[in-house]
Design goal:
Low-confidence stretches of chain A: 1-8
Number of domains of chain B: 2
Largest interface: A-B, 27 and 30 residues
CATH superfamily of the largest domain in chain B: Periplasmic binding protein-like II
Helix content of chain B: 40-55%
Helix content of chain A: over 70%
Largest sheet of chain A: none
Shape of chain A: flat
CATH class of chain A: Mainly Alpha
CATH architecture of chain A: Orthogonal Bundle
CATH topology of chain A: MetI-like fold
CATH topology of the largest domain in chain B: D-Maltodextrin-Binding Protein, domain 2
Strand content of chain B: 15-25%
Number of helices of chain B: 15
Number of strands of chain A: 0
Oligomer: heterodimer
Order of helices and strands of chain B: HEHEHEHEEEHEHHHEHEHEEHHEHHEH
Low-confidence stretches of chain B: none
Number of helices of chain A: 13
CATH class of the largest domain in chain B: Alpha Beta
Structural class of chain A: mainly alpha
CATH superfamily of chain A: MetI-like
Order of helices and strands of chain A: HHHHHHHHHHHHH
Number of domains of chain A: 1
Chain lengths: 292, 385
């Protein structure tokens, strides 16, 4: 089959509609693929000096100076993806099973953070979570916190709060959409044979909605890894910090695109893992569809 | 036939049109002012300097061109001038350029500038050492400083009665008051970077070598380990704030009592009501870095006389007082004492009461030479984190 295909390829005229693909493909190649390739390539060359030969020096520097930051970034991302996943599923289940005015109002309010840009969220969190910020002063009014020893939130905890605040609604939007597709009869059937709410969630809703949950988690995960403003404005100069802050530092202060790209490659690898998992599960799903 | 005559008529109209445009342009001399820096520098050129200068010189049309922030913006100007030189262009496009310090090193090496400063009628007001030798390059005569942005330690006098007079005293103070000094590290903005540079100057005592004379000695970097280990100890008792603004906010909210800031941001925040007006400034020994921006005139400037006139206008006590000091809260490029009559005494007292012009002359240091600058930042990441 394949041989016939390839031998006839030469004579076969491409259908004209293939041209319609050109703008999209060209855009992808120029705006994504090409920068990606040059970024990986540049990470193997020194960005200053006359020595233009292949080198691993940039990666050595990344290892020496930034390995803590890479681990930290990975930790923050993993933790927040899990947190966002769990909370988003719980809220989506609530919106799916309780359809009344309160839940409708809540789900409308809930969508607001999706439309607020990260830089605004960062500024907000900056004044909200500060040692003498809104949160701490409010808690102090209630007598829960001593302003001389306020909660310190410009760290992992505050960063997680910011990411969760911004990303949970986004994940809910996707996951809730998936839950809406599940017919009530499944839930009723499970209930009629005595399933309690937790087992309805774990054994019916979540498995039937697996694909949209994975999509949501993959998107949240890659967004968190790539976010610059929130970590920069919350924990900027602290150690450890995130990869994105380090990249900005290498470029702004050293104009060192070599190490910056090497750091970039590290974050591509972190993202690649999920992308591969995502693609695999998609392929598996497609196969199951076919075999069905 | 008819078509042809219409065409001819069109050509004649076009030719007259061009001639009249040419005529208009001949009436007004065009002047190109090219500036590096953030967008605020573009606004400064377009909205402040150009209209002001054109009001005094109605025959001149000043066009401001902006090349972008940071050293990269200065580099664009340098590349433009270098290209003109290589192309043998004896009459260039740029009349006046406003550049960062590092530009001077590049441009002086390539001999792209003309000496003009001593001919300016405002030269007599220039006292800053930056206008003589800058980043190890002899620039005297080639530059007029527009302003100085300076870093200093801001403190809350409610809690800090006697601010530390030196970095050593500051280290003691921090030990006694853990968590009350804050700076933004080196990744959150240049006020933290400036603080670290000052720390290295203080501990090594080699300001002259690192910032003025050079040359860069790579072997020396290893000897800094104890300097940064001390800084690491110091960091254990300080708060790392979220950026230049973060330090000012934390001071304002009373979270910290002391921290390094850019002086212009400090006064801007205060004027906007975003910083407690009680807050004060001090410059500890041996000083902290700041940076000027310089006016230069390219060697092939089309109207050097006019260029000089423009620079004289902007460095005059009147413009320096009204625009540089009162409007944008920078320290003036010219000596502060020259402004005494030009700005209200209250404003003068405000900007110079904590840090006097004499302090600035003595303790307003330069940032290190480029190689030392990078080496210090990287050593911080290696040993102080």
């Amino acid at each position: 089959m394949t041989t016939v295909h390839s031998s006839s390829w030469g004579e076969r005229k491409l259908p004209p509609y293939i041209l319609m693909l050109f703008p999209a493909v060209a855009f992808m190649v120029v705006m994504y693929l090409w920068p990606f390739i040059t970024s990986v390539a540049q990470s193997f060359f020194l960005s200053s000096g006359s020595d233009k030969s292949f080198t691993l020096a940039n990666y050595v520097k990344v290892w020496e100076l930034y390995r803590k930051d890479i681990v930290f970034t990975f930790g923050v991302t993993l933790f927040n993806t899990a947190l966002v996943g769990v909370v988003a599923v719980v809220f989506s289940v609530y919106f799916r099973l309780r359809q009344n005015r309160v839940s409708a109002l809540l789900s409308a309010i809930f969508k607001l953070p999706i439309f607020i840009p990260f830089v605004v969220v960062s500024q907000m969190m900056n004044s909200f979570l500060a040692p003498h910020g809104l949160l701490n002063t409010a808690l102090a009014q209630l007598g829960l916190v001593d302003l001389q020893r306020p909660l310190q939130l410009f760290n992992f905890a505050g960063l997680s709060f910011g990411f969760a605040w911004k990303q949970i609604p986004f994940a809910v939007l996707i996951i809730h959409g998936g839950f809406q597709m599940i017919d009530n009869s499944y839930i009723e059937a499970a209930r009629s044979i005595g399933a309690k709410l937790p087992s309805v969630i774990v054994r019916v809703l979540v498995p039937m909605n697996k694909s949209s949950i994975i999509v949501a988690l993959v998107l949240v995960y890659s967004q968190i890894i790539g976010t610059f403003t929130l970590p920069y404005m919350l924990i900027g100069g602290k150690t450890p910090t995130t990869i994105t802050v380090d990249i900005a530092h290498r470029v702004n202060y050293f104009r060192d695109f070599g190490v910056a790209n090497a750091l970039g490659v590290c974050s591509y690898i972190l993202v690649l893992a999920t992308a591969v998992y995502y693609l695999r599960s998609k392929v598996k799903e497609a196969r199951q569809e076919v075999s069905r | 036939m008819r078509k042809k005559s219409i065409f001819v008529a069109f050509l004649i109209v076009l030719a007259f049109g061009l001639l009249s445009v040419q005529g208009l342009a001949a009436q007004k001399t065009r002047m190109i002012f090219m500036t590096a820096g953030d967008v605020n520098m573009l606004a400064l050129g377009q909205n402040v300097f150009a209209p002001g200068f054109m009001a005094e010189n109605p025959n001149v049309q000043v066009t401001t061109i902006h090349t972008g922030p940071g050293n990269a913006g200065s580099q664009t100007i340098f590349e433009k001038l270098l290209a003109e030189k290589k192309a043998g262009k004896t009459v260039g496009d740029v009349d006046v350029a406003l550049v960062h310090e590092i530009f001077m090193k590049w441009a002086m090496d390539e001999n792209l500038l003309q000496p003009y400063a001593q001919m300016c009628n405002t030269w007599k007001y220039v006292t800053t050492p930056f206008a003589k030798v800058d980043l190890g390059v002899k620039v005297e005569g080639y530059v007029m400083p527009l302003f100085m942005s300076q870093t200093a330690i801001a403190y809350n006098p409610d809690y800090v009665k006697n601010p530390p007079k030196s970095y050593a005293e500051l280290a003691d103070w921090v030990k006694k008051n853990p968590g009350k000094f804050g700076y933004n590290g080196i990744k959150g903005g240049a006020s933290g970077v400036a603080f670290v540079m000052g720390w290295v100057y203080a501990e090594t005592g080699k300001y002259q070598k690192y910032a003025v004379t050079g040359p860069f000695d790579k072997a020396e970097v290893a000897s800094w380990e104890p300097v940064f280990k001390d800084l690491k100890e110091f960091n254990k008792n300080v708060v790392i704030t979220a950026g230049n603004v973060g330090t000012l906010d934390a001071l304002n909210r009373g979270e910290i009592w002391m921290g390094p800031v850019w002086v212009d941001m400090f006064f801007t925040f205060m004027n906007d009501g975003k910083l407690d007006p009680k807050t004060k400034l001090s410059l500890p020994e041996p000083g902290m870095p700041g940076q000027p921006m310089f006016f230069v005139i390219p060697k092939n400037a089309p109207n050097p006389e006019l260029s000089r006139k423009f620079i004289e206008y902007v460095t005059s006590p009147k413009v320096q007082a009204n625009d540089i000091v009162m409007r944008f809260n920078w320290y003036p490029g010219i000596d502060g004492s020259a402004l005494k009559g030009a700005i209200p005494q209250a404003t003068f007292d405000k900007i110079y009461s904590d840090v006097t012009p004499a302090d600035l002359q003595k303790k307003g240091l330069a940032f290190p030479l480029a190689d030392y600058y990078s080496a210090i930042l990287e050593s911080y990441e290696r040993w102080a984190q």
